[in-house]
């Protein structure tokens, strides 16, 4: 239409242009809708799986390693609830009135023991080069979703705040994952290693039965979480590092446990590979999960928008000093429980109970408890 | 700590923080336990097993006439059963109405004493009438036992039926009246200690000052700048992840928080307090019983969606709830608790420079002291609590003043309140780091916490039968032992050194693995 035209010809072109414009608008709208639908469907696709991961359900999980063996008791074993009652360490009844079931107060030495566990764990993990953090426990629901959780699904584990788009965190993995949201990290900064302490809140919707008595399954608990952002080629290596740290921590405390390579049916959507640690709980007469270490590769980083720019190699720098900027890549993220306090309390109380009703404190924790060596029954 | 969040019983406290313009006629509605949106279906699904089925007091804001009219017509107002009842001594209020009126005025409360007295009077009269009718109905019933002519019997049956209907109506009215009386009376604030100054903030009286502002011979930085240079916190990332007034603590700040909490717990335990950690999600009724308003406008309280639960703004709430609805042996008193928890506050209505950085945040760690004691001893324990705070803060080397807060600044539950304001050189002013309140029986009447005085030997008869003494309400007190973010502001700003480092107070060093100072990181 830029050239010289007869009026009739011009009019014809204007008509054609208008029709094309309308058709285009409709198609572009359809395209947006299609993209959105594609996005929603595709986001349901779970992460890839490490080739060594066994295929199947819980019973297909593979034993990687076992440390220690179940302690032999020559007196009747009490479970943590009974020990807690006799040693005046927790109160579930008052909490049921004030808050509801699966809430609790910790009392007396249990308070000092929780602090010692957190303090010691943070100190140990910091020694290995992790940056300590405390985090917000209220976060935007979009961040929860980007980490691979579902705030609004049926039977969701996530508490939501009324009249807002905010939720309570179920793990520090979420606010830590969010730190570098929508940013490009320099490759030289990697790996970024964080150890975060927070309270965690879970609805535990749908969980019922004996496996939920006492401290084993609660709505609120303290947890120390390790989180790594690294280059793609290194995530397998850091996964091994994380599980090794967990192994060291739990052996230092004298626990007996096994490490499992979880089968495909038990991985969450984000996990490429997941190692669970199950510790022996003599009062419950079974192994119970105390920790989990997952390699999420780029599942979370693609959602959180965390990239890194690989450093240019000298060969790409032209003689005039102009550097070729390498394309960005998505970081890999990993997370692992360093200490989930209630499950640790179950383990410590049940494993280290003595015949006289006292509980012996593992040596590494004693300096963090003012030197206290044991918890004794209170005189009444 | 920051008791400005108390709104029940209507103080204008919140006006200073909120910027909501309030017209005088509608003002009393702002401070009531009135949710604006009602969802009765929601409530019925989640009513606690013990509580009677409850709904909510509905008052249309377009009916200021209700506030003005001395005798509220119950037909205008749908009064439904409150979820719980405070054990209020109406007779005492009536017998002491002048003192109560003066107290309400001094505290600038919106409680309507006239209405309470009228409703109480009405209720007493209605009760008498109900009793009279019951008496008559019994008469009729007795008469019907004897031998009667059929016509006479029929007449009595009619009379009985009429009485029964009249009685039913009156009894329903009585219930409604009781509920309304209860709701109005629960707005009446606690009494006030005679030594408390009357007035607003500037009337608060200085009790004591410890130390003096440090003299700096180099430019003073505020905690935000120190935090940035020492890589101690991150507000920016938190703003993206959570919103404003959230933060991450990093590096030595994490260890410093743990050291503060650990040291504080240890020190207070030495003084005979039982350490606790508490639930941070509680039923909203418990929040209300402690004197807070979960659903008021500009509420400080976060609520959990699809439930009757809230996040706590202070451990005072779950600790107050431990002995809810129970009778404690007198020999068990005093019960002294020191509780560590995270606290969550919406800080709705708070804005301005006084809210930068760590000074005003939505989430923080706090160590709280709570005492339940005999009535005669609460003044003494109030002194004990403020003394503990004084000891703690002096040990850390802080300079601070202790204020006896004036009537206009007391929340509804507090009989007397001491605030501690510490010098914050970076902010160039004193900032509140702690608060110690004596709530006497305000909370215990709502939480239902009583004690049974031990019988004296003289009341025990020779046959071994003991006279059971009537129960009394405990007195409750609460005091902040350590509010971490404000302490971090104080420590960073007061103990900064010229080289940019911050020196750790000696008592905290053993709890931080011996670390003596926080140094700038080499970059």
TrEMBL record, chain B:
- Pfam families recorded: Seryl_tRNA_N, tRNA-synt_2b
Q: What is its EC number?
A: 6.1.1.11
- Is Nucleotide-binding there in the keyword field? yes
Q: Name the top EC class.
A: ligase
Coiled-coil intervals: 116-180
InterPro entries cross-referenced by the UniProt entry: aa-tRNA-synt_IIb, aa-tRNA-synth_II, aa-tRNA-synth_II/BPL/LPL, Ser-tRNA-ligase_type_1, Ser-tRNA-synth_1_N, SerRS_1_N_sf, SerRS_core, tRNA-bd_arm
Q: Which SUPFAM superfamilies does the record match to this protein?
A: Class II aaRS and biotin synthetases, tRNA-binding arm
Q: Does the keyword ATP-binding apply?
A: yes
Indicate the segments forming the Aminoacyl-transfer RNA synthetases class-II family profile domain, all copies.
Answer: 222-505
Q: Which UniProt keywords apply?
A: Aminoacyl-tRNA synthetase, ATP-binding, Coiled coil, Ligase, Nucleotide-binding, Protein biosynthesis
This chain belongs to which protein, by name? Answer: serine--tRNA ligase
The record lists the lineage as:
Eukaryota, Viridiplantae, Streptophyta, Embryophyta, Tracheophyta
């Amino acid at each position: 239409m830029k050239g010289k035209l007869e009026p009739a010809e011009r009019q014809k072109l204007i008509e054609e242009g208008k029709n094309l414009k309308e058709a285009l608008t409709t198609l572009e709208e359809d395209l947006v809708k299609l993209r959105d639908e594609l996005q929603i469907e595709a986001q349901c696709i779970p992460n890839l799986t490490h080739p060594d991961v066994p295929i199947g359900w819980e019973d297909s999980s593979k034993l990687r390693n076992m440390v220690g063996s179940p302690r032999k008791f020559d007196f009747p074993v009490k479970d943590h609830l009974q020990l807690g009652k006799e040693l005046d360490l927790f109160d579930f009844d008052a909490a049921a009135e004030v808050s509801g079931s699966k809430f609790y107060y910790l009392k007396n030495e249990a308070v000092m023991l929780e602090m010692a566990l957190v303090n010691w764990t943070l100190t140990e993990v910091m020694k290995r080069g992790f940056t300590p953090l405390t985090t917000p426990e209220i976060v935007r629901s979009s961040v929860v979703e980007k980490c691979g959780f579902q705030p609004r699904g049926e039977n969701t584990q996530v508490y939501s705040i009324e009249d807002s788009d905010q939720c309570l965190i179920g793990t520090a993995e979420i606010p830590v994952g969010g730190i570098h949201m929508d940013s490009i990290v320099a490759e030289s900064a990697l790996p970024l290693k964080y150890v975060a302490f927070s309270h965690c809140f879970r609805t535990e919707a749908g969980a019922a039965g004996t496996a939920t008595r006492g401290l084993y399954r609660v709505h609120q608990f303290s947890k120390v979480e390790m989180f790594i952002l690294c280059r793609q080629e290194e995530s397998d290596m850091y996964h091994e590092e994380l599980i090794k740290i967990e192994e060291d921590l739990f052996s230092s405390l004298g626990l007996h446990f096994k490490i499992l390579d979880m089968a495909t049916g038990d991985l969450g959507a984000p996990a490429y590979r997941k190692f669970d640690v199950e510790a022996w709980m003599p009062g419950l007469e079974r192994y119970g999960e105390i920790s989990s270490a997952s390699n999420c590769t780029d599942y979370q980083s693609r959602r959180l928008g965390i990239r890194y720019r690989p450093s240019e190699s000298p060969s790409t720098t032209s003689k005039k000093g102009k550097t070729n900027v390498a394309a960005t890549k998505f970081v890999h993220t990993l997370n692992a429980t360093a200490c989930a306090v209630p499950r640790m309390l179950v383990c410590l109380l049940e494993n280290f109970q003595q015949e006289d009703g006292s509980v012996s404190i593992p040596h590494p924790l004693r300096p963090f408890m003012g030197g206290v060596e044991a918890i004794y029954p209170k005189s009444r | 700590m920051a008791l400005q969040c108390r709104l029940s019983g209507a103080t204008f406290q919140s006006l200073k923080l909120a910027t909501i313009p309030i017209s005088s006629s509608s003002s009393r509605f702002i401070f009531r336990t009135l949710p604006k949106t009602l969802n009765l279906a929601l409530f019925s699904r989640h009513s606690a097993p013990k509580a009677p089925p409850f709904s909510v007091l509905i008052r249309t804001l377009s009916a200021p006439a209700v506030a003005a009219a001395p005798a509220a017509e119950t037909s205008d107002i749908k009064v439904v059963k409150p979820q719980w009842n405070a054990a209020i001594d109406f007779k005492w209020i009536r017998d002491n109405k002048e003192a109560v009126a003066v107290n309400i005025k001094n505290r600038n409360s919106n409680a309507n004493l006239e209405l309470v007295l009228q409703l109480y009077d009405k209720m007493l009269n209605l009760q008498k009438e109900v009793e009279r009718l019951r008496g008559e109905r019994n008469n009729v019933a007795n008469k019907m036992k004897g031998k009667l002519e059929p016509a006479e019997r029929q007449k009595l049956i009619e009379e009985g039926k009429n009485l029964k209907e009249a009685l039913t109506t009156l009894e329903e009215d009585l219930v409604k009246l009781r509920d309304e009386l209860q709701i109005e009376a629960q707005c009446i604030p606690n009494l006030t200690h005679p030594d408390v100054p009357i007035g607003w903030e500037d009337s608060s009286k200085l009790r004591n000052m410890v130390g003096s502002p440090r003299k700096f011979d180099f430019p003073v930085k505020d905690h935000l700048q120190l935090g940035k240079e020492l890589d101690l916190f991150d507000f920016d990332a938190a703003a993206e992840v959570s919103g404003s007034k959230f933060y991450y603590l990093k590096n030595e700040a994490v260890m410093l928080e743990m050291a503060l909490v650990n040291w504080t717990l240890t020190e207070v335990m030495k003084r005979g307090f039982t350490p606790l950690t508490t639930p941070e999600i509680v039923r909203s009724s418990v929040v209300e019983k402690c004197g807070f308003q979960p659903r008021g406008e500009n509420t400080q309280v976060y609520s959990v969606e699809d439930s009757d639960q809230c996040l706590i703004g202070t451990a005072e709430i779950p600790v107050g709830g431990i002995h809810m609805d129970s009778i404690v042996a007198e020999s068990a008193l005093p019960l002294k608790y020191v509780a560590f928890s995270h606290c969550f506050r919406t800080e709705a209505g708070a804005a301005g420079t006084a809210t930068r950085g760590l000074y005003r945040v939505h989430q923080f760690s706090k160590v709280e002291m709570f005492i339940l004691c005999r009535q005669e001893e609460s003044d003494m324990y109030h002194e004990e609590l403020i003394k503990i705070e004084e000891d703690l803060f002096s040990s850390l080397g802080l300079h601070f003043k202790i204020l006896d807060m004036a009537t206009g600044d007391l929340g509804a539950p507090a009989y007397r309140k001491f605030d501690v304001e510490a010098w914050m050189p970076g902010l160039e002013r004193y900032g509140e780091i702690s608060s110690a309140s004596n709530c006497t029986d305000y909370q215990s009447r709502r939480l239902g916490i009583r004690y049974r005085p031990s019988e004296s030997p003289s009341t025990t008869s020779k046959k071994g039968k003991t006279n059971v003494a009537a129960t009394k309400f405990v007195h409750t007190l609460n005091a902040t032992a350590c509010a971490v973010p404000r302490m971090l502001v104080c420590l960073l700003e007061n103990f900064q050194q010229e080289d940019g480092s911050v020196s750790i107070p000696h008592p905290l060093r053993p709890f931080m693995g011996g670390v003596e100072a926080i140094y700038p990181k080499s970059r």
